[in-house]
Amino acid sequence: MFLQYIIAMAIAVIAVVLAVILGDYGPWYLSWLLGTGFMILVAVSAGVLFEAQEDAAQESAGPADAAADVTRVVAGPAPGAGKPGLAG
Question: Rounded to whole angstroms, how far apart are CA atoms 67 and 57?
Fold first, then answer.
């Protein structure tokens, strides 16, 4: 029981020291830490979703259609071609 009291007291002292050092900046650091972690998770989940959609599109298109798609993009008209007022 006494050892638990000492451990709890040490944790309380560490918490008070951190609170004094951080002062008014504590919430800023906490939100920065949580926000950075959250944005990393959002970016990773968006990348995973993008890859899953690309894989699904390639499976449904088949290998011959994927090659035709690349050919269409490469051989397609230039952006703005045929539009009046855009000299190329």
Answer: 13
62: left (phi over 0), alpha (psi -120 to 50) or beta: left
Q: What is the pLDDT of residues 35-60, one digit of tens each?
A: 999 999 999 999 999 999 988 888 87
As given in the structure block, the two tokens for residue 70 are 């690349």
- 82 phi, psi to nearest 5 deg: 85, 0
- The answer, as to whether pTM is greater than 0.85, is no
Q: Are 36 and 29 in contact (CB under 8 A)?
A: no
Virtual torsion, Cα 40, 24, 20, 16, nearest 10 deg: -60
Helix (H) / strand (E) element for 38: namely: helix 26-75
